[in-house]
Amino acid sequence: MKNIFLSLPKIFLVCFSTATVFAQTNGTLPLKSIEAVYQVNEKEVAATLQFLASDALEGRETGQPGLVKAADYLEQFFKDNNVKPYFKSYRDTLSTFKETAFNVVGYLEGSDPVLKNEFILLSAHYDHIGITKKGVNGDFINNGANDDASGTTAVAEMAKYFSISKNNKRSILFVFFAGEEKGLLGSKHLTKKLKAQNFNLYTHFNIEMIGVPMKRDYLAYITGFDKSNMAAKINEYTGKKTIGFLPKEAEYQLFYRSDNFSFYDVFKVPCQSVSTFDFENFEFYHHVSDDFKAMDVPHMTSFIQELLPAVTQMANTASHEIIMLK
Protein backbone atom coordinates (compact mmCIF):
# COMPACT_ATOMS: atom_id res chain seq x y z
CA MET A 1 0.00 0.00 0.00
CA LYS A 2 1.37 3.39 -0.99
CA ASN A 3 2.41 5.82 1.74
CA ILE A 4 -0.33 5.10 4.22
CA PHE A 5 1.60 6.82 6.97
CA LEU A 6 2.06 10.15 5.22
CA SER A 7 -0.57 11.65 7.49
CA LEU A 8 1.01 10.12 10.63
CA PRO A 9 3.76 12.21 12.74
CA LYS A 10 4.83 -27.93 8.60
CA ILE A 11 1.25 -28.90 8.60
CA PHE A 12 -0.87 -27.61 5.76
CA LEU A 13 -4.64 -27.77 5.85
CA VAL A 14 -7.31 -27.48 3.22
CA CYS A 15 -10.11 -25.12 4.09
CA PHE A 16 -13.24 -27.23 3.62
CA SER A 17 -16.29 -25.06 3.30
CA THR A 18 -19.08 -24.38 0.89
CA ALA A 19 -19.43 -21.04 -0.82
CA THR A 20 -23.15 -20.76 -1.54
CA VAL A 21 -24.26 -17.84 -3.69
CA PHE A 22 -27.57 -16.64 -5.01
CA ALA A 23 -28.55 -15.27 -8.40
CA GLN A 24 -31.00 -12.49 -7.65
CA THR A 25 -33.20 -10.14 -9.59
CA ASN A 26 -33.30 -7.67 -6.70
CA GLY A 27 -31.24 -6.88 -3.63
CA THR A 28 -33.29 -8.84 -1.12
CA LEU A 29 -34.96 -12.17 -1.93
CA PRO A 30 -32.90 -14.98 -3.47
CA LEU A 31 -34.84 -16.44 -6.38
CA LYS A 32 -32.42 -19.09 -7.54
CA SER A 33 -29.58 -20.57 -5.55
CA ILE A 34 -26.30 -21.52 -7.17
CA GLU A 35 -23.99 -23.88 -5.36
CA ALA A 36 -20.37 -22.86 -5.85
CA VAL A 37 -18.57 -25.50 -3.84
CA TYR A 38 -14.85 -24.88 -3.86
CA GLN A 39 -12.06 -25.61 -1.42
CA VAL A 40 -9.26 -23.09 -1.14
CA ASN A 41 -6.09 -25.09 -0.60
CA GLU A 42 -3.90 -23.73 2.18
CA LYS A 43 -0.77 -25.38 0.81
CA GLU A 44 -1.24 -23.68 -2.57
CA VAL A 45 -1.89 -20.33 -0.91
CA ALA A 46 1.34 -20.73 1.06
CA ALA A 47 3.33 -21.69 -2.04
CA THR A 48 2.37 -18.58 -4.00
CA LEU A 49 2.85 -16.26 -1.03
CA GLN A 50 6.21 -17.77 -0.13
CA PHE A 51 7.56 -17.39 -3.66
CA LEU A 52 6.40 -13.78 -4.06
CA ALA A 53 7.89 -12.84 -0.67
CA SER A 54 11.15 -14.73 -1.16
CA ASP A 55 14.58 -13.09 -1.04
CA ALA A 56 15.13 -14.18 -4.65
CA LEU A 57 12.72 -11.46 -5.77
CA GLU A 58 14.65 -8.77 -3.86
CA GLY A 59 11.56 -6.88 -2.72
CA ARG A 60 9.87 -6.68 -6.14
CA GLU A 61 10.71 -3.04 -6.83
CA THR A 62 9.17 -1.71 -10.03
CA GLY A 63 11.73 -1.61 -12.81
CA GLN A 64 14.04 -4.14 -11.12
CA PRO A 65 14.74 -7.81 -12.02
CA GLY A 66 12.89 -9.11 -8.97
CA LEU A 67 9.59 -7.76 -10.23
CA VAL A 68 10.18 -9.43 -13.59
CA LYS A 69 10.63 -12.76 -11.79
CA ALA A 70 7.33 -12.15 -10.02
CA ALA A 71 5.67 -11.34 -13.34
CA ASP A 72 7.05 -14.54 -14.86
CA TYR A 73 5.49 -16.51 -12.02
CA LEU A 74 2.11 -14.78 -12.28
CA GLU A 75 1.99 -15.11 -16.05
CA GLN A 76 2.66 -18.84 -15.75
CA PHE A 77 -0.03 -19.05 -13.07
CA PHE A 78 -2.54 -17.60 -15.54
CA LYS A 79 -1.42 -20.01 -18.25
CA ASP A 80 -1.64 -23.02 -15.90
CA ASN A 81 -5.18 -22.04 -14.95
CA ASN A 82 -6.44 -21.22 -18.46
CA VAL A 83 -6.83 -17.51 -17.80
CA LYS A 84 -6.33 -15.73 -21.12
CA PRO A 85 -4.37 -12.52 -21.74
CA TYR A 86 -6.69 -9.53 -22.21
CA PHE A 87 -4.27 -7.76 -24.51
CA LYS A 88 -1.92 -9.41 -27.01
CA SER A 89 0.16 -10.66 -24.10
CA TYR A 90 -0.27 -10.78 -20.34
CA ARG A 91 2.23 -7.94 -19.96
CA ASP A 92 0.82 -4.44 -20.15
CA THR A 93 3.78 -2.08 -20.40
CA LEU A 94 3.43 1.06 -18.31
CA SER A 95 3.38 4.42 -20.05
CA THR A 96 3.73 6.14 -16.68
CA PHE A 97 7.20 4.86 -15.73
CA LYS A 98 10.51 5.89 -17.31
CA GLU A 99 11.95 2.37 -17.24
CA THR A 100 10.37 -0.83 -18.52
CA ALA A 101 7.71 -2.19 -16.20
CA PHE A 102 4.37 -3.83 -16.72
CA ASN A 103 1.09 -4.86 -15.17
CA VAL A 104 0.13 -8.51 -15.54
CA VAL A 105 -3.41 -8.76 -16.91
CA GLY A 106 -5.60 -11.85 -17.34
CA TYR A 107 -9.15 -12.31 -18.52
CA LEU A 108 -12.05 -14.73 -18.31
CA GLU A 109 -14.98 -14.07 -20.63
CA GLY A 110 -18.45 -14.13 -19.14
CA SER A 111 -20.94 -16.83 -20.09
CA ASP A 112 -23.99 -14.60 -20.57
CA PRO A 113 -24.37 -13.14 -24.08
CA VAL A 114 -25.33 -9.73 -22.68
CA LEU A 115 -23.63 -9.54 -19.28
CA LYS A 116 -20.29 -10.64 -20.72
CA ASN A 117 -19.95 -7.13 -22.11
CA GLU A 118 -19.67 -5.86 -18.52
CA PHE A 119 -16.59 -6.40 -16.38
CA ILE A 120 -15.70 -6.77 -12.77
CA LEU A 121 -12.06 -6.08 -11.98
CA LEU A 122 -10.24 -8.07 -9.29
CA SER A 123 -6.79 -6.73 -8.52
CA ALA A 124 -3.79 -6.35 -6.24
CA HIS A 125 -0.38 -4.73 -6.67
CA TYR A 126 2.51 -7.13 -6.97
CA ASP A 127 5.31 -4.58 -6.59
CA HIS A 128 6.95 -3.51 -3.35
CA ILE A 129 9.81 -1.19 -2.30
CA GLY A 130 12.85 -3.38 -2.94
CA ILE A 131 16.15 -3.25 -1.08
CA THR A 132 16.81 -0.76 1.70
CA LYS A 133 20.17 0.93 2.28
CA LYS A 134 19.81 0.67 6.05
CA GLY A 135 19.21 -2.92 7.05
CA VAL A 136 17.95 -4.50 10.25
CA ASN A 137 20.09 -7.27 11.74
CA GLY A 138 21.76 -7.80 8.40
CA ASP A 139 18.51 -7.97 6.44
CA PHE A 140 18.17 -5.41 3.64
CA ILE A 141 15.28 -6.90 1.61
CA ASN A 142 11.76 -5.54 2.00
CA ASN A 143 9.98 -8.73 1.01
CA GLY A 144 6.49 -7.23 1.09
CA ALA A 145 4.66 -10.38 2.17
CA ASN A 146 1.69 -8.48 3.56
CA ASP A 147 2.13 -5.51 1.23
CA ASP A 148 0.99 -6.85 -1.14
CA ALA A 149 2.04 -10.41 -1.89
CA SER A 150 -0.91 -11.37 0.31
CA GLY A 151 -3.44 -9.57 -1.89
CA THR A 152 -1.74 -10.82 -5.04
CA THR A 153 -2.05 -14.39 -3.76
CA ALA A 154 -5.75 -13.87 -3.03
CA VAL A 155 -6.45 -12.56 -6.54
CA ALA A 156 -4.51 -15.47 -8.05
CA GLU A 157 -6.64 -17.92 -6.05
CA MET A 158 -9.82 -16.18 -7.20
CA ALA A 159 -8.66 -16.45 -10.81
CA LYS A 160 -8.12 -20.18 -10.29
CA TYR A 161 -11.58 -20.52 -8.71
CA PHE A 162 -13.38 -18.82 -11.59
CA SER A 163 -11.38 -20.76 -14.15
CA ILE A 164 -12.44 -24.05 -12.56
CA SER A 165 -16.04 -23.13 -11.67
CA LYS A 166 -16.77 -21.17 -14.88
CA ASN A 167 -19.37 -19.39 -12.77
CA ASN A 168 -19.23 -15.86 -14.16
CA LYS A 169 -21.88 -14.35 -16.39
CA ARG A 170 -19.93 -11.09 -16.48
CA SER A 171 -16.39 -11.02 -17.77
CA ILE A 172 -13.61 -10.68 -15.21
CA LEU A 173 -10.34 -8.81 -15.53
CA PHE A 174 -7.63 -10.01 -13.14
CA VAL A 175 -4.88 -7.43 -12.73
CA PHE A 176 -1.59 -7.46 -10.86
CA PHE A 177 -0.42 -3.85 -10.80
CA ALA A 178 3.16 -2.63 -10.96
CA GLY A 179 4.18 0.83 -9.79
CA GLU A 180 1.70 1.13 -6.94
CA GLU A 181 4.49 2.03 -4.52
CA LYS A 182 5.76 4.62 -7.03
CA GLY A 183 2.49 6.53 -7.02
CA LEU A 184 -0.26 4.21 -8.34
CA LEU A 185 1.49 4.23 -11.71
CA GLY A 186 0.24 0.87 -12.95
CA SER A 187 -3.41 1.58 -12.25
CA LYS A 188 -3.19 5.11 -13.64
CA HIS A 189 -1.78 3.72 -16.86
CA LEU A 190 -4.36 0.94 -17.21
CA THR A 191 -7.28 3.18 -16.32
CA LYS A 192 -6.43 5.59 -19.12
CA LYS A 193 -5.88 2.74 -21.58
CA LEU A 194 -9.16 0.99 -20.79
CA LYS A 195 -11.17 4.21 -20.75
CA ALA A 196 -9.95 4.96 -24.28
CA GLN A 197 -11.31 1.55 -25.31
CA ASN A 198 -14.76 2.23 -23.80
CA PHE A 199 -14.21 -0.49 -21.22
CA ASN A 200 -17.52 -1.29 -19.51
CA LEU A 201 -16.62 -1.48 -15.81
CA TYR A 202 -19.29 -2.54 -13.32
CA THR A 203 -17.14 -2.59 -10.19
CA HIS A 204 -13.51 -2.85 -9.06
CA PHE A 205 -12.54 -4.95 -6.02
CA ASN A 206 -8.92 -4.44 -5.00
CA ILE A 207 -7.20 -6.52 -2.31
CA GLU A 208 -4.57 -4.92 -0.04
CA MET A 209 -2.69 -6.37 2.91
CA ILE A 210 -4.73 -9.35 4.12
CA GLY A 211 -1.86 -11.39 5.63
CA VAL A 212 -2.86 -11.10 9.30
CA PRO A 213 -6.30 -11.11 10.96
CA MET A 214 -7.95 -8.34 12.93
CA LYS A 215 -9.31 -8.82 16.44
CA ARG A 216 -12.73 -7.43 15.60
CA ASP A 217 -16.22 -8.74 15.04
CA TYR A 218 -15.83 -8.60 11.26
CA LEU A 219 -13.33 -10.15 8.88
CA ALA A 220 -12.18 -7.10 6.92
CA TYR A 221 -12.96 -3.51 6.02
CA ILE A 222 -13.20 -1.68 2.72
CA THR A 223 -11.85 1.74 1.92
CA GLY A 224 -14.38 4.47 1.19
CA PHE A 225 -16.97 2.59 3.25
CA ASP A 226 -19.75 5.14 2.74
CA LYS A 227 -19.10 5.86 -0.94
CA SER A 228 -21.09 2.85 -2.13
CA ASN A 229 -23.22 0.02 -0.79
CA MET A 230 -20.45 -2.51 -1.47
CA ALA A 231 -19.94 -3.41 2.18
CA ALA A 232 -23.65 -4.09 2.70
CA LYS A 233 -23.90 -6.14 -0.48
CA ILE A 234 -20.83 -8.24 0.38
CA ASN A 235 -22.35 -9.02 3.78
CA GLU A 236 -25.61 -9.93 2.09
CA TYR A 237 -23.81 -12.19 -0.38
CA THR A 238 -21.75 -13.98 2.27
CA GLY A 239 -24.53 -14.14 4.84
CA LYS A 240 -22.08 -12.91 7.47
CA LYS A 241 -20.70 -9.70 8.92
CA THR A 242 -17.73 -10.01 6.61
CA ILE A 243 -17.09 -6.28 6.08
CA GLY A 244 -17.15 -3.64 8.80
CA PHE A 245 -16.31 0.03 9.16
CA LEU A 246 -12.82 0.91 10.40
CA PRO A 247 -12.63 4.54 11.65
CA LYS A 248 -8.87 4.67 11.01
CA GLU A 249 -9.52 4.01 7.32
CA ALA A 250 -11.62 7.14 7.07
CA GLU A 251 -9.19 9.15 9.21
CA TYR A 252 -6.22 8.30 6.99
CA GLN A 253 -8.26 8.42 3.76
CA LEU A 254 -7.03 5.04 2.54
CA PHE A 255 -9.56 5.15 -0.29
CA TYR A 256 -7.18 7.51 -2.11
CA ARG A 257 -3.99 5.55 -1.39
CA SER A 258 -4.39 2.39 -3.43
CA ASP A 259 -5.12 1.36 -7.00
CA ASN A 260 -8.90 1.43 -6.59
CA PHE A 261 -8.77 5.22 -6.62
CA SER A 262 -7.33 5.43 -10.13
CA PHE A 263 -10.36 3.60 -11.48
CA TYR A 264 -12.88 5.46 -9.36
CA ASP A 265 -11.37 8.76 -10.46
CA VAL A 266 -11.98 7.96 -14.12
CA PHE A 267 -14.95 5.57 -14.22
CA LYS A 268 -16.98 6.91 -11.25
CA VAL A 269 -18.30 3.46 -10.33
CA PRO A 270 -17.80 1.50 -7.09
CA CYS A 271 -14.06 0.88 -6.85
CA GLN A 272 -12.83 -0.07 -3.39
CA SER A 273 -10.03 -1.92 -1.61
CA VAL A 274 -10.48 -4.59 1.03
CA SER A 275 -7.92 -5.07 3.81
CA THR A 276 -7.32 -6.64 7.22
CA PHE A 277 -4.45 -4.33 8.19
CA ASP A 278 -5.93 -2.13 10.93
CA PHE A 279 -2.89 -0.22 12.31
CA GLU A 280 -2.90 -2.44 15.41
CA ASN A 281 -2.23 -5.96 14.13
CA PHE A 282 0.96 -5.55 12.08
CA GLU A 283 4.03 -3.49 12.95
CA PHE A 284 6.17 -4.17 9.89
CA TYR A 285 4.71 -1.84 7.26
CA HIS A 286 7.46 -1.07 4.71
CA HIS A 287 9.92 -2.98 6.87
CA VAL A 288 12.33 -5.83 6.20
CA SER A 289 10.37 -8.01 8.65
CA ASP A 290 7.31 -7.97 6.40
CA ASP A 291 8.16 -11.49 5.28
CA PHE A 292 6.54 -14.88 4.85
CA LYS A 293 7.03 -16.08 8.42
CA ALA A 294 5.05 -13.09 9.71
CA MET A 295 1.96 -14.11 7.70
CA ASP A 296 -1.02 -16.09 8.95
CA VAL A 297 -1.66 -18.47 6.06
CA PRO A 298 -4.74 -20.18 7.62
CA HIS A 299 -6.30 -16.73 8.01
CA MET A 300 -5.54 -15.87 4.38
CA THR A 301 -7.06 -19.15 3.24
CA SER A 302 -10.27 -18.59 5.18
CA PHE A 303 -10.35 -14.94 4.00
CA ILE A 304 -10.33 -16.04 0.35
CA GLN A 305 -12.91 -18.73 1.06
CA GLU A 306 -15.29 -16.30 2.75
CA LEU A 307 -15.06 -13.78 -0.10
CA LEU A 308 -15.86 -16.30 -2.85
CA PRO A 309 -19.66 -15.90 -2.58
CA ALA A 310 -19.27 -12.13 -2.80
CA VAL A 311 -17.09 -12.05 -5.91
CA THR A 312 -19.29 -14.72 -7.49
CA GLN A 313 -22.36 -12.58 -6.95
CA MET A 314 -20.56 -9.56 -8.40
CA ALA A 315 -19.99 -11.63 -11.52
CA ASN A 316 -23.54 -12.97 -11.80
CA THR A 317 -26.28 -10.60 -10.61
CA ALA A 318 -28.80 -9.70 -13.28
CA SER A 319 -28.58 -5.99 -12.45
CA HIS A 320 -26.08 -3.58 -10.94
CA GLU A 321 -26.69 -4.21 -7.26
CA ILE A 322 -23.52 -2.45 -6.11
CA ILE A 323 -24.04 1.26 -6.61
CA MET A 324 -22.51 4.59 -5.62
CA LEU A 325 -24.09 6.38 -2.66
CA LYS A 326 -22.23 9.69 -2.87
Ordered list of secondary-structure elements with their pairings:
Blueprint: E1 14-15, E2 18-23, E3 32-37, E4 40-41, H1 42-52, H2 65-80, E5 84-85, E6 91-93, E7 102-108, E8 119-125, E9 131-136, E10 139-141, H3 145-165, E11 171-177, H4 185-196, E12 201-207, E13 220-222, H5 230-238, E14 243-244, H6 247-251, H7 260-267, E15 271-275, H8 297-314
Describe the structure.
With 326 residues, this protein is α/β, with parallel strands linked by helices. It has a single domain, classed as Aminopeptidase (3-Layer(aba) Sandwich), CATH 3.40.630. The chain is built from 8 helices and 15 strands. It has helices at 42-52, 65-80, 145-165, 185-196, 230-238, 247-251, 260-267, 297-314; strands at residues 14-15, 18-23, 32-37, 40-41, 84-85, 91-93, 102-108, 119-125, 131-136, 139-141, 171-177, 201-207, 220-222, 243-244, 271-275. The strands form 4 sheets. Strands 5, 6, 7, 8, 11, 12, 13, 14 and 15 form a 9-stranded mixed β-sheet that branches. A two-stranded antiparallel ribbon has the order 1-4. The model is unreliable at 5-35 (pLDDT under 50).
